């Protein structure tokens, strides 16, 4: 963005002071832009540019931020940026009058103005607005980064997203796409008869996932509460209550590390369908990704971080044990005891805490260490050990495993689903086992939820449940390397 020549070599504090003095002068003249409460614009820059034949020589009123300005004696050009597009305006002393033109010349890059005039094309064929009237709507007291350096500091871009959106308008496209993706997910589920619901964000226990919660305190009740780590247990209560298909898109909070795939506050969708199982959840997961790609992106073949991903093909389905065998050659179907599994783990350098030295935990550790990063094309990995699936129904054919899957794309996990455990006695015993893990120091293990057990005791039908990380899904569809690129305001440590 071009800045006035006089500003380019002056200290930023001096620039701010100069701009404040300009504002002070306006206020003395009873022309304070901050007193303006409304401005009636008739059209957007994009609308005008896309429909020039309709708007040619027609009067319009537009508004936006000045991002470029070129003073040439008695005639000038400026470019403004509105929410979607930029457009040039021709400004002359003959049209505005001497006093208004003099004031226009004092406007700064970053100021927000309104322009009334007619649409035309310059000699270089650029669609522009010939200004007849210009109104200063808001004074920018702080200069924007200079155009040719831009806002490249990634940390600053995340901290000051408003500035990032001004200086790097292409960033807006990511968040417009985010909105379209979430809307399309809703459309697909609504078409399939799901009911969108809302459940509490403040919980008396942290349940529904394996994660460390944020703790807060309710003063009136004098009790600790938790920001939810998942919506699962409340949604399944609704299945007990008689809703057959429900879903919720909302924020979850996990007191965990921050990296390119994790933010303490994130958006997820969970959906539950009575009388279905994890095979049905595989089908709807595949359908969601394919339909979103088709309807929003326009293709089921996408590129993510220079890797071509084909969402349109039939997704691979493989058991966790078979996936380990496929990559390492080790077949846990032939390893029956904890002792045998532990010996293999030690040979492969897999380290586990004392409370997790069981065959099930070792299978999961092998998968995470050797297999996960190899799953590039869409893959469902299913039949997880019961130890790592406390809310999932056991397999009839092998009670050590559960009817659970996760889906992987590009070596990353995007969704988690179960044939939901609806046996209250088994569920209670699983919670007891989780409490043992907490006592052994695992802060992420599930807490006991007595009311959820009570709900199951009234009877929950066979149910399929699915959770998808919305932020990760949007990362995939926008080719974003970091979760922070798809969050308007990611969690950041204060500078002071």
Question: What does the model show?
Answer:
With 496 residues, the protein is of the alpha+beta class. The chain folds into two domains: 5-149, OB fold (Dihydrolipoamide Acetyltransferase, E2P), CATH 2.40.50; 170-315 and 377-486, 2-Layer Sandwich (BirA Bifunctional Protein, domain 2). It contains 16 helices and 18 strands. The strands form four sheets. An eight-stranded mixed β-sheet has the order 6-10-11-18-17-16-15-14, sandwiched between helices. Helix 11 (320-328) crosses helix 13 (359-371) and helix 14 packs antiparallel against helix 15 (450-457). The longest helix has 22 residues, at 170-191.
Features:
496 residues, alpha+beta, OB fold (Dihydrolipoamide Acetyltransferase, E2P), BirA Bifunctional Protein, domain 2, 5-stranded mixed beta barrel, 16 helices, 25% strand, disordered N terminus
